[in-house]
Design goal:
The complex is a heterodimer of chains A (about 110) and B (about 500). Chain A has about 110 residues and is mainly alpha-helical. Chain A has a single domain, classed as Orthogonal Bundle (Helix Hairpins), CATH 1.10.287.3510. Chain A has 5 helices and no strands. The N and C termini of chain A lie far apart (about 50 Å). Chain B has a domain of about 230 residues. In chain B, α5 crosses α21, α12 packs antiparallel against α15 and α14 packs antiparallel against α15. Chain B is globular and about 70 Å long. Chain B starts with a helix and ends with a helix. In chain B, about 65% of the residues are buried. The chains are: A mainly alpha (about 110), B mainly alpha (about 500). At the A-B interface, α1, α2, α3 and α5 of A face α7, α8 and α11 of B.
Chain lengths: ~110, ~500
C-alpha cells in the first residue's frame, strides 16, 4: 500500500511541477504549486501511517512517543495552513498586478531582467 | 509533555520580537507622531537582544551546552543564539538605515517595520530548529513577509513583479524541499534533527546503509538530499537556483534587498549547517563533494555575470551570489576528509565568521547605496559618477565596503576569505581554494570599477552634494567600523564563531 501511495504522490508532484513550468497564467501556476504541496501531503500521511522507527514500534504507542508516531501528519497539517496563506498572498499580489498591467500572463511580467 | 515555563523562556527572543511587531502596528494606529513609533521599534529591539544574551549565558554553563524545548522541536545552543544575535543586530541597523527610504510611504511605515520583524522572527527560529517540521514552518514564516515586503511599493510595477517572482519561486522551492523531507522521513521514520529522548531517535541515528557503493548508501536518502539541497539552494541563491536573486533585489525596495541579502542568507546558511552537519553528519563525505562543486559554480557564475551589470542593486545581487559561493566552500570543508584529527570545526567556524563579516560589509554597501539612490533617484553605476567630490563621506564608506567585498586587507572581507580558503586547503580542497582566489581577482574588476566611477569620472549634470540623514549615517558608520575592526582584530568574532561551531558539532 505504501508503494502505491508514494507512486501516486510522485505522479501528482510531477504534474504540479510540469504545470508551474509550462503554464503562462499565474493563477494556473499557483494551482500547480498547490498540487505539489498536496502531493507532499499524500506522501507524508502515507509514510506516517506505514513507517515508524523500530525503536518506537517496539515500545508500543505511549504518550511519550505519540509525537513521533504522528510526525508526518503534523507536518501535513502545517503544510495545509501555510499553503493557504501563500495562496492568499499570491492572489493579493495578482490583484495588484491586474490593476497595474491588466494581465495575468507571466510572460508579460518582464520589466526586470533587461 | 505539556508546555513548561522553560519552553517559553527558550523561545522568548522570538516571542518578544513578534510581540514588538504587533505593538508597532497597533501603536501606529494610536499615535500621530510616526517618529515615536519607529523609536519604540528600535529601542524595543533591546528586549529580544537581552533575552538572547541571557540564554547564551544560561547554556554556557551546561554540560552539553544546549537546551531543548517544546519536546525537542526547539534547540537552544550557542550556534542558535549566535544567529539570533547576528539577526537582531542586522535588524537594528536595517531599521536605522531604511528610516529615510520608508519616509516615502510614511502611512505604511509601521506595517513595513512589522513585516520585517515577523520575517526576522522566522529567521531567528530557523537555526534553532530541532526537527524538520520547525525548519519548514520557520522558513515559511520568514519567506511570506518578504514576499509582501518585496511588493511593498504598490504603485510600482517593478516591485509587484519582484514580489510575484519571489512568491512563485519560493512556493516551488518549498514544495521541492518538503518532498525531500518526506523522502528523508520515509528512509529514517523520523524528522528529528536532534533526539530529545531515547524513545525518539534522530535522523542521524536512524540512517542505514542499504546499497553500499551508492552515494548516501540509500536510494531514498540520496533522492531526499538532492531535493533538500535544491530547496535550500533557492534561499542561499546557489547556482542553479539563483535566477530570482537579481530580479528581486532590483525590484524590491532597497532596504528589503539589504535584509534579504544579509539576514535571509545568514539564517539559510545556519539551517543548512544544522541539517547537513547534525542530521546527515554520518554521510558527510558524500555531500561534501557536492557542496564543493556547487561552490565553484556559484562563485564563478556570480562574479562573471556581475561584470556585465549596469544597475547597482542588480550588481550587488550578483555579488551576493558570488559570496554565497565563497561560504559554500566553508560548508564543503568538513573534517572527515582531513585524514588526521585536527580541528573538526574549521569549516563551520570559517562560514560563521564569514557570515558575520559579510553582514557588516554588505550592509555597509547597501546602506550607502540606499542613501545615495534615495537622493539621486539614479540606480545605475553611471549615476554614481563624481560622488567622490559630491559626497566624500558616503563615497568613502561605499568604497571601503567594496574594497572589503573584494577581499583586500585590512578589512573583514580579507579575513573571512582567508579563513574559508584555509579551511578548504586543510581539508584537501586545494583546487577549490585556487578557484576562490581566481574569483576574488575577477570580482575586483567590477567592485573597483564602481570606485573608479565615483572618484575619477565627473558628475554629469546634477553636481549637488548628497548626504544621508542622521540614523542612516550612524548605521553606515557602525558597519564601516565593524568592517575595519574585525579586519584588524578578528579574535572577538572568531571566538563567538568557535563557540557556536563547537555547540553545533555536539548536537549529533
Amino acid at each position: 500500500m505504501l508503494e502505491r501511495l508514494l507512486i501516486l504522490s510522485a505522479i501528482v508532484f510531477c504534474i504540479g511541477m510540469y504545470g508551474v513550468l509550462s503554464r503562462r497564467n499565474i493563477i494556473a501556476m499557483l494551482m500547480s504549486i498547490e498540487l505539489m504541496f498536496n502531493a507532499v501531503n499524500i506522501a507524508l500521511v502515507a509514510i506516517s501511517r506505514y513507517v515508524t522507527p523500530a525503536a518506537v514500534r517496539a515500545a508500543g504507542p505511549t504518550e511519550a512517543n505519540a509525537a513521533s508516531v504522528l510526525t508526518g501528519q503534523t507536518l501535513a497539517a502545517f503544510v495545509i495552513v501555510v499553503a493557504a496563506a501563500e495562496v492568499a498572498l499570491g492572489l493579493a499580489l495578482l490583484i495588484t498586478l491586474v490593476r497595474q498591467r491588466d494581465t495575468v500572463d507571466i510572460t508579460q511580467v518582464n520589466l526586470l531582467r533587461r | 509533555m505539556g508546555l513548561t515555563s522553560t519552553d517559553i523562556y527558550l523561545i522568548s527572543p522570538e516571542l518578544a520580537l513578534a510581540g514588538l511587531a504587533l505593538a508597532v502596528v497597533l501603536l501606529d494606529l494610536a499615535l500621530k507622531n510616526k517618529t515615536v513609533v519607529l523609536g519604540v521599534a528600535v529601542v524595543g529591539l533591546l528586549v529580544p537582544i537581552a533575552f538572547a544574551v541571557s540564554l547564551w549565558v544560561r547554556v554556557d554553563g551546561l554540560v552539553f551546552a544546549r537546551e531543548t524545548g517544546f519536546n525537542g522541536s526547539l534547540v537552544i545552543d550557542q550556534f542558535a543564539i549566535f544567529f539570533k544575535l547576528l539577526l537582531l543586530g542586522i535588524l537594528v541597523l536595517v531599521l536605522l538605515a531604511s528610516n529615510e527610504y520608508t519616509g516615502r510611504f510614511r502611512r505604511y511605515q509601521a506595517e513595513f517595520t512589522g513585516l520585517v520583524f515577523f520575517s526576522a522572527t522566522g529567521l531567528m527560529l530557523l537555526p534553532a530548529a530541532g526537527d524538520l517540521i520547525t525548519v519548514y514552518v520557520a522558513l515559511e514564516l520568514a519567506s511570506l513577509p518578504i514576499v509582501a515586503l518585496a511588493a511593498f511599493l504598490k504603485m510600482q510595477a517593478r516591485s509587484t513583479e519582484a514580489g510575484l517572482k519571489y512568491l512563485v519561486l519560493s512556493g516551488v522551492s518549498s514544495a521541492v524541499l518538503l518532498y525531500g523531507f518526506a523522502l528523508l522521513y520515509a528512509a529514517t521514520g523520523t524528522m528529528r534533527i536532534v533526539s530529545p529522548s531515547a524513545a525518539e531517535p534522530s535522523i542521524a541515528q536512524m540512517l542505514t546503509v542499504t546499497h553500499a557503493g551508492l552515494p548516501f548508501g540509500n536510494v531514498a536518502v540520496l533522492a531526499g538530499v538532492v531535493l533538500v539541497l535544491a530547496g535550500f539552494g533557492f534561499k542561499l541563491s546557489m547556482v542553479p537556483f539563483q535566477m530570482w536573486t537579481p530580479d528581486v533585489y532590483e525590484g524590491a525596495p532597497t532596504p528589503v534587498s539589504a535584509f534579504l541579502a544579509v539576514a535571509s542568507k545568514s539564517a539559510a546558511f545556519a539551517v543548512v549547517l544544522r541539517v547537513f552537519y547534525s542530521a546527515l553528519g554520518d554521510v558527510s563525505a558524500d555531500w561534501s563533494l557536492v557542496f564543493a562543486a556547487l561552490a565553484a559554480v556559484t562563485m564563478s557564475v556570480g562574479n562573471l555575470v556581475a561584470i556585465a551589470q549596469s544597475n547597482v542593486k542588480r550588481l550587488l545581487g550578483y555579488s551576493t551570489i558570488a559570496h554565497a559561493g565563497y561560504m559554500l566552500v566553508g560548508v564543503a570543508a568538513i573534517a572527515a576528509r582531513a585524514g588526521d584529527a585536527g580541528d573538526g570545526s574549521l569549516g563551520i567556524v570559517s562560514v560563521l565568521f564569514y557570515l558575520g563579516g559579510y553582514a557588516a560589509m554588505n550592509l555597509a554597501a547597501f546602506f550607502a547605496v540606499i542613501a545615495i539612490t534615495n537622493r539621486t533617484g539614479n540606480e545605475t553605476v553611471r549615476g554614481l559618477a563624481g560622488l567622490g567630490q559630491r559626497s566624500p563621506l558616503l563615497a568613502g564608506m561605499l568604497a571601503f565596503a567594496l574594497v572589503s567585498l573584494t577581499g583586500i586587507p585590512p578589512t573583514v572581507g580579507f579575513m573571512g576569505k582567508l579563513f574559508v580558503f584555509n579551511a578548504a586547503i586543510n581539508t584537501g580542497y586545494t583546487w577549490l581554494a585556487v578557484i576562490g582566489v581566481i574569483n576574488s581577482v575577477v570580482s575586483a574588476y567590477y567592485y573597483l570599477n564602481i570606485v573608479r566611477v565615483m572618484y575619477l569620472q565627473p558628475a554629469d549634470g546634477d553636481a549637488r552634494p548628497v548626504s544621508a540623514n542622521a540614523p542612516a549615517t550612524v548605521a553606515l558608520a557602525f558597519t564601516s567600523i565593524a568592517v575595519l575592526l574585525f579586519g584588524l582584530w578578528p579574535t572577538g568574532l572568531l571566538d563567538a564563531a568557535r563557540a557556536a561551531a563547537t555547540a553545533l558539532l555536539q548536537t549529533l
